[in-house]
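Table 4 source record.
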Amino acid sequence: MPDKFYKPPLVIRKTLLKIIFCLAISIISGVLISKAFFYISLILLFLLFSKQTAIGCIHLYQRYAPIEIRARCCMVPSCSQYSIMAIERYGVIIGLRKTYSRLKRCKPPGGEDFP
């Protein structure tokens, strides 16, 4: 019986803390000031942390998605790893567009494709 509890990797913990921080600031600003400022602050906070948030969500998928789903990818690198590389290289919007086009191409016989 293990003595220690599972601790998620540092990247996932940091991403979750950023998401919680963004939500807390947005809720506080929405309660204290006005709805317009609430929406503006929510958009600005999302834009500030969108790259880390997107990569953190992909890391969550890599960690917790069932093996049957993750094993379907027949390309090298895997589609999730490709999306992380594309987001880091091109930013969130273009990286997600490249990820979408990659997901459409991901079928047997596979192959090698880098962003």
